[in-house]
Amino acid sequence: MGRNAKRQMGPALAIIASCLASVPLMAAEQYNWQAAPSEQLQAQLTIKEAILRAFARNPKIAQAAAQISVGKANLDEAQSAWFPQIALQGGLGRSHTTDSAGSLNSNASAGVNLKQLLWDFGRTGGSVDEQENLSDAYRFQLYDTLNSVGQQTLQTYLQVKRYQALSAAAERNVRSLNNVLEMANLRANAGLSSQSDVLQAQSRIAGMNASLEQYRAQTRSAQAALSVLTGVVSDNLPDLPEDLLRQKISLQSLPYEQNSAVRSAQAKQLAAEQKIRQAQAQHYPTFSVQAGRTRYENDHGDYWDDQVQLVVDAPVYQGGAVSARVDAAEGERRNAQAEVEASKLDVNQKAATAWADLTGAQQRQQAGEMQFAAAGKAREVYGDEYRLSKRSLNDLLSVEQDVFQADSSSITARYDAWDAAVRYAGAVDNLLNMLGIERQQLTGDTLPAL
């Protein structure tokens, strides 16, 4: 990636900075440690808005964006070695110089020196290439952080939806049990059954109400976690796009080249290779041009000293320091290469686990839906037979339990499948694209349009 392309990261950082403007930076002594991040009520919270709001609030994104600025500054510093180095010098005090032509005294001096690097056998070039690769690594770390924050937000979003659905299932079962209680009351009042049927129905309703309150508490807990991530409290959360469940899944040819974590590790490996190049170049001399003009003052008048020189700096012996630097750089390269393989392994493990969980959850959902349909038909038949005294209340309460169990199992499996689909999309770094968060084209790579 060229230098001009690197400079295009400025607008991207401005986008991130504007997104993070709601998180002011304060001096430590001025920061109010008791002040929690603000939250607001909202009628509806869409998936895209939830993720973008999480981007604005998560400090890890600010940290990754700041690291990009550090990388850009380090790159500018490395590139500065190719530019002329200009320095002013001056001195005040007695100076005495003696040579074969005689002696020369001066009381003060002032001048300017210019030094231009000509060639150093790849030392400076390696430094520039190293910082360019590190800048790439920092940028991909930002992309990986965005993906991780998006996945965390979406999984929390799904938890809210899960417990809302389970609460609704418990409410449906409570209404159905109230219908059973009404039938038991009618039969008991007509002398067709004992009052124990009424007590059994009331006991079952009380138990289901306890389960309902538990689901509501879990819903509130999940909503609290989502509000911390997004800054929004909302009960209305739209469903996720079905494309997540229909995404192409392949464990044989995972797109490692598209994963930001892998690309970041690869960029660090390339940077380590350039560090080896820098260390090896220290065995060779450095050529530069040095020019200067100095004015001296003495008791008998002033004079100028002008110089233009080709300077060669050639190390002869440094006690093995250069060889040690080369060995250290080789070790860093091997470490970076291992990090690339570890990143690939992590992607593989996450994708494989998500695929297995998705397959199992979809099968459980199908079984739960079939069980729910069968239990629903049995509930209708048992209700009619209970009215005709052909079934006991225990039979009717038992089938009501079967209906709720099948309903809750189906809901749990459905959201387990959603969670697995989100984890797979996050593992292959395709989650933001599938959720419709457009990415702005920058230097051949992408950054979310915040």
From TrEMBL:
<protein>
    <submittedName>
        <fullName>TolC family outer membrane protein</fullName>
    </submittedName>
</protein>
<keyword id="KW-1134">Transmembrane beta strand</keyword>
<dbReference type="Pfam" id="PF02321">
    <property type="entry name" value="OEP"/>
</dbReference>
<feature type="signal peptide">
    <location>
        <begin position="1"/>
        <end position="27"/>
    </location>
</feature>
<keyword id="KW-0732">Signal</keyword>
<keyword id="KW-0175">Coiled coil</keyword>
<dbReference type="InterPro" id="IPR010130">
    <property type="entry name" value="T1SS_OMP_TolC"/>
</dbReference>
<keyword id="KW-0813">Transport</keyword>
<feature type="coiled-coil region">
    <location>
        <begin position="160"/>
        <end position="218"/>
    </location>
</feature>
<dbReference type="InterPro" id="IPR051906">
    <property type="entry name" value="TolC-like"/>
</dbReference>
<dbReference type="InterPro" id="IPR003423">
    <property type="entry name" value="OMP_efflux"/>
</dbReference>
<keyword id="KW-0812">Transmembrane</keyword>
<keyword id="KW-0998">Cell outer membrane</keyword>
<keyword id="KW-0472">Membrane</keyword>
<comment type="similarity">
    <text>Belongs to the outer membrane factor (OMF) (TC 1.B.17) family.</text>
</comment>
